[in-house]
Each structure stands twice: as structure tokens, then as C-alpha cells.
Amino acid sequence: MKQLRLSIIGFGTVGQGLAELLFGKEALLKQDYGLDVKLVSVANSRHGFIYRENGLDISMLLELAAARRPLTEHPGVSHWDNALEGLRATGGDVLAEATGTNLRDAEPGVSHIRTALSQGMHVVTANKGPAALYAQELFALAQAHGVQLRLESTVMAGTPVISTLREGMAGAQVQAMRGILNGTTNYILSAMAAGRDYTDVLTEAQAQGYAEADPTADVEGYDAVAKTLILAALVFGRSLRPEQVARQGITHITREQMQQAREQGKRIKLVASLRLLQEPAAGANTQTAPLEARVEPMALPENDPLARVDGVINAIAIQSDTLPEVTVIGPGAGRLQTGQGLLSDLIAIARK
Amino acid sequence: MKQLRLSIIGFGTVGQGLAELLFGKEALLKQDYGLDVKLVSVANSRHGFIYRENGLDISMLLELAAARRPLTEHPGVSHWDNALEGLRATGGDVLAEATGTNLRDAEPGVSHIRTALSQGMHVVTANKGPAALYAQELFALAQAHGVQLRLESTVMAGTPVISTLREGMAGAQVQAMRGILNGTTNYILSAMAAGRDYTDVLTEAQAQGYAEADPTADVEGYDAVAKTLILAALVFGRSLRPEQVARQGITHITREQMQQAREQGKRIKLVASLRLLQEPAAGANTQTAPLEARVEPMALPENDPLARVDGVINAIAIQSDTLPEVTVIGPGAGRLQTGQGLLSDLIAIARK
């Protein structure tokens, strides 16, 4: 039995989703994976960082969070106001970083991750900010300290995309990929394809929780850009800046354009794409060839595997030298779906 | 740099495909994966087993094979008539078992695999026979000897299906899966959907090499049954016998049935499915719930992610507790595509 002492920083939807899975799957993890995860610390921005040497009671934490009561009500815990200080003082084997995404400077997530890696903790994260802006630096830091940094949930939640690219397809040289990587815009475009207006659908998506009150990050393509940056770093080893991704959102798409596409047997999707502009020589390093990165609405023919991916479902199609095209379709968001990505990353860390 | 001494037994399409990838990607493997694969032995049924302590010249072996000349023409090799004897005498770190599939008794592959595992060698294989008939026994043998057995290429060639199920989705409890797992039948059904007759298409598929002279294993569903058995063992931990899979082939499907399905907005596909008949309790072992296994033509609605998978492309849709449906689409056969699965398995072994 391998024991991992886990710290979860960020105890909103994602952090709670992971905790819920760890609680519900405790027996499964022990039996099928020989893995005993002990949650020793949790932090959120409102109540600070709590730690208990012998482990925290996950169901009690979930109840406290659901009732919006302070996590410090958990008995027998030490408390720090500041998560970084608490993490430095207490440590553990793995940090699950689950604070909110900030695409400007990636804080506070990137500081949590740097601190954890520097003190020899593995890190799993669903936070797109650090992954989009600092992936290369953070992977180097992880390597320098002999620990792992895993990011499955930053792209398409727990749908296995990053593990597919880095492990499932290991040895294949990826030449291009195209993805529907944002659920909100795909939900809107799918409804528009059925004849509805952008504004109506956006309002409905906001009411259903599929779109935020300020939908800019989604509808202008910034969220898809962040995921494109993550994939550029993970697959092509490039540190692109957001401005290096040609970006166009969906706000100007009209019902008429959707209609016209439909008449031509096509579907308009917000497509994120990465493409090497020169084919690398067999076996050669792909890190020097020019890389094109784009996020833009595209009219896809109906036989394109991405064309029929509707609603909040996401998808990615990967072209490589040995596998002409592999497509992975699955959920791109959700509490347990995102928690699942953190869980599979935890298991991967335990296995290695 | 990690060095793996590799033996390839079976030097037909698949074995040569792996060798070609190892030759072409030697620099990439060293640079990106820190992996130095040294091919020390090769065997085929015509020329027996050859071994060279300091490694074989892969390009020379590929030339000899292409010219149908004896592999023993490679200079400086030791030779055994029998692959098992050669393997026992010489060993290595990893066996790539790539002899042809035999669904009756899995020989000679299963003997090669048993021998390798028993002498502490890891095994990667594309051979469906041992995986379909003896997976549980072979995994137990691998575990007993502290080595890995990896089977990516036995289902959908190098398209990452098994790694997705076992690693990318680790921690998720799979409840059901449905797949288009046979390229020949999907090619025939896709052409029939375009209005052609079964017999015509079969003849054409045979001419193009997509179907064998005796197409029974494909068109009667036996190949899909083998893959269903492999998935039952890997995902649900069950040793099913072929007779436990309800099987129906595609030979009785008429042009009229295809037409009728089309008029109803449906597509007929040969679908392999596995489904737990009781939902396991959260965290509970899934190995006791009854498991339904079927291979049969099904009329799928057009919005089913499997419905539009045409030609020799394969696909699998996986339902689990945390990810409602994940679909993986990709090539299901081919020299380099199958070699790719063996390569990713080799890299996984080197990483652990």
C-alpha cells in the first residue's frame, strides 16, 4: 500500500470534486491501485489553510463547505491565514492546486505550485493560469526537484487528453491538432445551429450555469487560447505568449452565417489549432519548426470528426507521423469530471 | 539514458513495423525519452531465431526481410532453429511478441510470452490470441515476476485505447463500452451504406488488402469477439470464453436493410459492447456484477459518436461513473500504426 499525504489548495467546485471522489473511492483506490490518499491540509481563500497530521475528515469538510461554514470548524486542526505559509510549514507528498484560473499573472496558483515543487512535493492541478503562462518553467522546476507536475484537468477536464498525448501516443511525433476546447461557446454554437440567436442562447447559457455573468473569457476565445498555450508547451515544447495565438471569438457570428454553413453541409465551431508549418524530418526534434497557433470559428464539413461534437462536449483531433488522426471526445468541464483528471494524475504519481 | 535490450519474435508486418519505427526514431527516443533500445534478437517462423550480443543492424534486417532472404545472413549472429530455445538461451529486457493471431490456442505466441515473463522479461505484444484467451493468467505471471505485460496494439492498433482505459482514466469505474473494433467490416458496411452490395464490396476489400482471402474471422465477428475478450479482462477483470460473447456477423445484412436504416437517419455498424448489468456501488469492486458481452450489427442514430466512423477507422465509446462518455477514434490497423502501439508500450516500460 502506497500512502500519499495530500494537500488541496482551493476548495471550490474543483477542490471539492476531488475530495468527493477521494471519499467515495477510498476502498477502490486501496484495492485496485494500492493507494491510500490521506488528506492532511486544505485551504480556501476565505478561511485560510488548515492542517491535521493524522488526516482530515473529508465528509466533514464537504459538509462545512456546502454550509459555507469556516473550514476551521474541523476539530483538531492547526491553522494559517495564508496558504503559502501553511504549505511551507507542513508539506506533504502531493499538492492538488485548485484555485481559480487567472490568465493575467496566474496568481495565486503559480506561487502555490512553485512553492510545492521547490519543497519536493508533486503537483497536480486543474488551474489553467500557471499551465498556460509558466508550463516550461514549472516543468523544469519539477525536474530539478525530482518530482512530477501533472495537468490533465487543464484541458477537457478529466477526459484523457494530456495523458493521451504524452503517454498513450508516446513516440509518435505530433504534427498538428485541432480542438473544440471550450464548452460554453460550443453550447452556444450548437444552439445557434438549431436556428437560435446568439443573444438568446447566451442568456439561457448564463441561466443554466454554462456561461459566466461576464462571458468574455469564453466567447472571445481567451479560454481556448489558454488551452492552446498549454498544449503548445506540453506537446511542442514551446512557451508561446497569448498574443502569439491568432484569436477570433464567436460574438460576431450571425444566424445567417450559421444557416448558410448548414446549407453547405457544414457546421461552425470555435476551433483551437496548433500546426507545425514544416514537417520535421523523421526522428528529428520538432522544437525548431515554426508553429502556427489559432483560435477561430471554422465551418467544418459534416464528415469532420469535430463537426458533430455538440453542446458542452469537447473534442480534440491529433495528427501524428504514425497515427494519421486520433480523436478524443468527452466532457470538458464539471465538478466530478474535473476531479477525475486530478484523481488520474494522483494515481499516475503513485504508480511511478 | 536507459537501455532496453529488445527481442522481436515474429518479423512479419507488425514486427517489421516496430523495427522500422525504432530505426527511424532512434534519435528521438534518446533525446525525448532518454531511451536507447538495442535490438538483440529477432525470430521468424521461416528462419528461426538470431541473436547478437552487441545489437543487430535494423536496416539490414528490414532489407533481408523485404527481399525474403534468411535473417541468418546478418553477420555475426548466433542462431537457433526454435525461437523459444533462442529466447531461453539469450534473454533480454523486453520481448516484443508479434507472431500471428491464433484464436484457437494462442500458439505460438502464448508460449513465447509465458517464457519471457517467467525469465523476468517485460512483454509488449500486438498478438490478440494470448490477450484474448489468457490475459488474466499472463498478467498474474507478469506480476509474480515483477515485470510488465502491455497490450496496446491488440485493440485498435496504436490508437491509445488500453492506455486510456488503464491509465488516462485511472480511478474512473467503467460501466459500459461500445466499439467499432474491426476495420474490415466497417469498411464493408460503410460502402454498403453508400448503396453497394455486400459481395461486391467484399471482393473489392480483398483486392485492396482490407479483407483476407478467407474473411470469416472478420465478417462473422470473431476478431471483434477477441477484442471484446481482451477488454473484458483488462477493464472488468473477467476471463470470458469466446462462447460467452453473443455474436452475430454482417454476412446477412442486405442492401435493403442498409437503405431502411438510412431512411430512419441511422447507420448500421458492427458494434462490440460490454456492459455491467448492475451498477456497482460507489467505490465497490465491479468484478462481481454480471457483465454482458455482445458483438452484433446495430442501427445507430446519426448523433451517436460511433455512427459516423467510416471506412477502416475504429472507435470506442466508454461510459464511466465520473466521465459520462469518452470516445476515442483512430486507425485500427496498419504496419506503422500497430508498431506505434508497441513503441508506446516500450516507452511506458522504460519510464516505470
Describe the structure concisely.
2 copies of one chain form a homodimer. With 352 residues, chain A is an alpha/beta fold. The first copy, chain A, is 39% helix and 23% strand.
How do the helices and strands line up, and which of them pair or pack?
2 copies of one chain form a homodimer.
Chain A (H helix, E strand, L loop, with lengths): L1 E8 L3 H12 L1 H8 L1 E10 L3 E4 L6 H9 L11 E3 L2 H8 L3 E4 L11 H10 L3 E4 L2 H17 L4 E2 L11 H7 L5 E7 L2 H11 L4 H10 L8 H4 L2 H15 L9 E2 L7 H9 L2 E11 L14 E11 L11 E8 L5 E6 L3 H17 L1
Parallel strand pairs in A: 1-2, 1-5, 5-6, 6-7, 9-11
Antiparallel strand pairs in A: 2-3, 3-4, 8-10, 8-12, 10-11, 12-13
Helix pairs in contact in A: 1-3, 1-13, 4-5, 5-6, 6-11, 8-9
The major β-sheet of chain A equals:
7 strands, mixed
Number of helices of chain A: 13
Q: What is the mean pLDDT of chain A?
A: 95
**Strand pairing plus helix content of chain A: what structural class?**
alpha/beta
* CA distance, first residue to last residue of chain A: 14 Å
Helix content of chain A: 25-40%
Oligomer: homodimer
